[in-house]
Amino acid sequence: MTYIASTLSRTPAGWEGADLDLSDVDDLDELADRLRESGSPAVLFLEEDDEYVALVRVDGDADPRVFVSDGRVLAGAGMAGRLLADSVDPAEVDEEEDEEDSGRPEVEPAGDDAVLADLGVDAEKLVALCAEERMLPSDVIFALAEALGAADVLEAVRGI
Length: 160
What we know:
By secondary structure, this protein is an alpha+beta fold. The protein has one domain (3-158). 28% of the residues lie in helices and 21% in strands. Strand 4 (53-58) and strand 5 form a beta hairpin. The longest helix is centred in the last third of the chain and has 12 residues, at 137-148.
């Protein structure tokens, strides 16, 4: 599976961004330690094969906060399952596959949907972006970066 992992970190000079290679990261604790090195708050934006958006946020030494646009990916063998499955309560993920009229499964967000609330993206907006039809994970990530005032930083990191 192909993934893209980008971080945005707020420093005294403003937002900074970087791509992050997760191939040598074994779990959420190790990921959080790597994020803490870049600033506070630091937010990881992860997408994999256009299936989901995952956010991991660290603020100083506090426990990492995790949100996944579709919690069903946590049961898979991909990056979200490998790194984030233990961070979200399984009761938060509805195992039923409800389908819309289009036949496409609805998203089933899991985790802390208020992960960006103090930065300008409340829980309702985050979930709505993830559920918006025809929005790819990269579109959701760009919209979130735009709301944070860091779209230009993300564009530079991703070479958009």
